């Protein structure tokens, strides 16, 4: 089959690789119809995630058609269309039984930090990703959700990660009716966090970024107030606090993660010298901006081993910090209903579509945030699959 | 970009009972679709590295890109170090860079030289005991 292949920092190509096969009785093999490029794939591309091996295929947001079925699979049959959560979860371990599917202990040999994840380095289990013609999907009776006929692949593609991740970010912010929420980041996860904040009754949602096209998109798609932090050089924290009555917002969401712009020393130490796990600028601002007793919700991705953060500020302000990778499976049915009834038109965030062979070009575009790029989607078998 | 401004969506999930992640931890129960007490176990086919805190491989794991060459040796060394130690992660990052170098050398015909160096280093650095 053809698949994306990591070649080293800032370099991917598409090459021939062996077809995936059934390796466990609960596996299925999917023919991939749509695979999105996630902002967190850029952390892999930029060489910031440990144990990212040359030849690895990225991709943890995908839909597909079941091509081959393992002997123990009961729920799926050949020809079923499915969308697949990015976490690989057994559904039966200590953590899955409590709804913490992102923390499954039965799918990641390499680390105790998180579950297995498709195409996200060997740190999350060494599974191949979906930016390929075919992909192996373990625990097929637990994770994948069947797509009904009236829905296209692109209607449900983002149930795999960014929509539930944005929703969980808002949920972890513990939003009560009438509150003010600041969301750092207008990438796809930030956009869905903003939309979800309205769904949870926020009275005011303020989005912070530095890319003008993304701020404009947030304004139109999410109806949020927007702030370009580059317009407030070095003064973004007091500006936001002042904007929220002087005390700061009730909750802040970090939907940026380890490659944030904005503070030079974090860029130098975290990205240039790799002496901390990326640049935690958005999280630092979130902690400093939120009101005393407020909530900071973190869905931005940071790698081990550490980051320099003002934890003393968080303690003295009496903050609640909530965070996790998204427990995708828990959110899929609810968010499917919101997609089905039109409350959320998730596919509107797609700005660019490419064939698989053009994946390197898509990565370049997305990484450089060129051409108003919000979200790139790959079509490994062409556009004919149901969009 | 063609995008019609929309109205703010209604607060349909205002009540916590509408939010799928509340409460954070559920009363323990097996997820829908589970039909086993313990998941069946995948047979290892090639070398799969596991972190030091884990006694055996989990029921499923990825088998892509098994560790090879000097980078593979470095990865094996890294996984002998507990993951709470920074040197575990730093060794893996070093292995990643060596992996890139190895693949580029191999791609430019330096494979024989690289193999020689790798074999010498593997012998010299081989964990003992």
Could you characterize what this model shows?
- The complex is a heterodimer of chains A (387) and B (129).
- Chain A has 387 residues and is of the alpha/beta class.
- Chain A has helices spanning 39-45, 94-97, 153-156, 162-172, 188-199, 212-222, 236-243, 264-272, 281-289, 311-316, 328-340, 359-367, and strands at residues 2-8, 11-16, 28-37, 61-69, 81-84, 87-88, 116-117, 134-137, 145-146, 180-184, 204-209, 225-228, 251-254, 295-298, 320-323, 352-355, 376-379.
- In chain A, the strands form four sheets. In chain A, strands 3, 4, 5, 8, 9, 16 and 17 form a seven-stranded mixed β-sheet that branches. Chain A has a six-stranded parallel β-sheet with strand order 12-11-10-13-14-15, sandwiched between helices. In chain A, strands 1-2 form a two-stranded antiparallel ribbon.
- In chain A, strand 10, helix 5 and strand 11 (204-209) form a beta-alpha-beta unit.
- The longest helix of chain A has 13 residues, at 328-340.
- Chain A is globular.
- The mean pLDDT of chain A is 96.
- Chain B is elongated.
- In chain B, helix 1 runs antiparallel to helix 2 (86-107).
- Chain B has 129 residues and is mainly α.
- The termini of chain B are far apart.
- Chain B has helices at residues 69-78, 86-107, 111-125.
């Amino acid at each position: 089959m053809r698949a994306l292949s990591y070649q080293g920092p800032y370099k991917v190509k598409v090459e021939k690789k062996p077809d995936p096969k059934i390796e466990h009785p609960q596996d299925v093999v999917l023919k991939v119809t749509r695979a999105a490029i996630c902002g967190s794939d850029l952390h892999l591309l930029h060489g910031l995630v440990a144990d990212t091996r040359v030849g690895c295929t990225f991709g943890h947001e995908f839909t597909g058609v079941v091509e081959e079925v393992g002997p123990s699979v009961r729920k799926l049959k050949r020809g079923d269309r499915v969308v697949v959560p990015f976490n690989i979860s057994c559904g039966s371990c200590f953590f899955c039984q409590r709804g913490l599917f992102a923390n499954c202990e039965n799918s990641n040999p390499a680390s105790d930090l998180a579950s297995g994840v498709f195409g996200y380095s060997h740190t999350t289990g060494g599974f191949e990703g979906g930016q390929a013609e075919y992909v192996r999907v373990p625990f097929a009776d637990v994770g994948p959700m069947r797509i009904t006929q009236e829905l296209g692949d692109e209607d449900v593609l983002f149930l795999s990660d960014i929509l539930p991740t944005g929703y969980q970010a808002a949920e972890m912010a513990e939003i009560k009716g009438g509150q003010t929420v600041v969301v750092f980041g207008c990438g796809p996860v930030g956009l869905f966090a903003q939309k979800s904040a309205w769904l949870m009754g926020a009275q005011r949602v303020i989005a912070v970024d530095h890319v003008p096209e993304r701020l404009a998109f947030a304004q139109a798609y999410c109806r949020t107030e927007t702030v370009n932090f580059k317009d407030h050089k070095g003064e973004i924290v007091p500006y936001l606090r002042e904007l929220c009555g002087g005390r700061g917002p009730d909750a802040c969401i970090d939907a940026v993660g380890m490659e944030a712009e904005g503070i030079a020393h974090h860029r130098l130490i975290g990205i240039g010298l790799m002496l901390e796990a990326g640049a935690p600028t958005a999280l630092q601002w979130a902690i400093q901006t939120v009101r005393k007793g407020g909530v900071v919700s973190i869905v931005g991705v940071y790698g081990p081993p550490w980051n320099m953060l003002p934890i003393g500020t968080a303690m003295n302000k009496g903050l609640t910090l909530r965070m996790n990778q998204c427990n995708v499976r828990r959110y899929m049915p609810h968010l499917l209903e919101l997609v089905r009834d039109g409350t959320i038109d998730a596919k509107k965030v797609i700005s660019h579509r490419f064939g698989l062979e053009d994946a390197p070009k898509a990565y370049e575009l997305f990484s450089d945030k060129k051409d108003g790029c919000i979200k790139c989607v790959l079509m490994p078998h062409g556009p004919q699959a149901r969009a | 970009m063609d995008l019609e401004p929309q109205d703010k969506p209604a607060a349909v999930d205002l009540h916590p009972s509408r939010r799928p992640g509340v409460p954070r931890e559920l009363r323990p129960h097996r997820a829908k679709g589970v039909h086993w007490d313990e998941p069946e176990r995948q047979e290892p086919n090639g070398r799969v590295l596991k972190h030091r805190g884990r006694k055996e491989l989990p029921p499923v794991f990825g088998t892509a890109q098994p560790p090879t060459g000097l980078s593979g040796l470095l990865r094996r060394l890294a996984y002998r170090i507990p993951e709470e130690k920074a040197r575990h992660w730093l060794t893996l990052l070093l292995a990643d860079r060596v992996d890139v170098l190895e693949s580029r050398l191999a791609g430019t015909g330096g494979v024989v030289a690289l193999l020689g160096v790798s074999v010498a280093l593997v012998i010299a650095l081989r964990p003992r005991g």
